[in-house]
Amino acid sequence: MTLVLRSVRLLDGPDAPVDVVVEDDTIASIVPAGEATATVEDHVFDLEGRWVTPGYVDHHTHFTMWAKHLARLDVSAAREPEDAAEAIRVALASEHVVDDSAFVARGFQDALWTREPTGEMLDAAAAAAGQEGRAIVVVSHDLHTVWVNEAAAQRFHAPRTGIVREDGAFAVEQAVDREAAEGEDDLIAAALSAASARGVTRLTDLEMADNPGVWAGRFRRGLDTMRIVANIYPEHLPLSVARGERTGAVVPDTGGMVTVGALKLFADGALNSGTALCHDPYLDGGFGYAVYGEGELEQVMADAHAQGFAIALHAIGDLAVARALDAFEASGARGTIEHAQLVANADLARFAALGVGASVHPEHLLDDRDVTDRLWAGRTERAFPYRALTEAGATLTFGSDAPVAPLDPWFAISAAVHRTRDARDAWEPGNAVDPMTALRASWAVPALAVGGQADLAVLDADPRTADMPTLRGMYVSLTVAAGKVTHRAW
């Protein structure tokens, strides 16, 4: 298939408009506007001087959970647990129940609450709505905590404590999603379409599943509109090795669109849950949570490296980041540190020196600014340190961590540049980056070039000069992934 994009302007090229010709999955030519020839069989789009850029990448998603979260009650505005419980009561009272499925809500941040959420609060909400005994699960904003009632604790074999954190929370979330598998393909299709409408042409999936196998099945069922990097977890590593997989390998039956990603590991917990591992104590005197004991992480990484896998290592607190860098150095592994929300000054240059990428999620700095001010008081100048990392030579890549933040590259780009999304002053503006740095951290390729892959997005405004509202809500007119139109705004 041939696409001809007439009269577009390259962000990194001359200001004069050009025509871009796409043949199958390749950019065949870039010529001055009006010079590209076309036949009646070709698909021709006159784009009237709009801006064309490489397609956008979300380097960190939990895609199935994101697709399902789009239809779940959002309680992120709750100022106390009683507010969240009341929102759940209202939703339950208006819901027509046709089965015994669990009711799932999302988005709470108990680090900002002054009272402890309890399972009894959710039991009372269910009873008041006429659904006594209904299992209720509320997934936290950062995914590292769940809030469950008695029925949910019994159903999903969780502690009857109301609040469950880290591995226990992950187990509940996975069990909930297994139950909600009916109609999943429709949700995935809708989520893929929504991502394409934001210019996304590739995403990395860190769902806690056998992602290469999952996406191979989806492509066979026609869910094939985006390039996928399918990461794996330790529990799936033996299966991947048995299939002969390694990082970068093409997954069969996907037309080259799905590749095997990195092995996802955890070094610590999360900020909102108070489990991110830090040099300095939290308000309660704790330092956070270390997933591995001394020497264990290095060995796991060395073994994976020997089997051909890169590492995507979750590390949020500054002590976790330091230990993560130590583990990369000791193991010889390559890959990324995911999140890097708090970094000691002495560790900034180690990213570049070790060839370790910083895979970061800028929208989190806005979601978490109040929590950061409270839990990391006195060290916020080192939090979400994007400019400091860039100036130290680190390679930044942006993602959403959806469903923690919406799967929208423009939210990440704007957050990194403006460090605010509303009338509040920019938060720690000394760590803001310039627009081109933010864009390159979100692009599939450094620039559009003849002979390159045909992944591109057409924008209505120049993102280099856009103000915060324009950049955050960037209008995407056209998205092309692997040479196929996946979004068209008219």
From TrEMBL:
Kindly give the InterPro entries that the UniProt entry links to this protein: Amidohydro_3 (IPR013108), Metal-dep_hydrolase_composite (IPR011059), Metal_Hydrolase (IPR032466)
What residues form the membrane-spanning segments?
Answer: none
Q: Where is the Amidohydrolase domain?
A: 44-487
Q: Which PANTHER family match?
A: IMIDAZOLONEPROPIONASE (PTHR22642), PROTEIN LONG AFTER FAR-RED 3 (PTHR22642:SF2)
Q: What is this protein called?
A: Amidohydrolase family protein
Native organism is Demequina zhanjiangensis
Q: Lineage, please?
A: Bacteria, Bacillati, Actinomycetota, Actinomycetes, Micrococcales
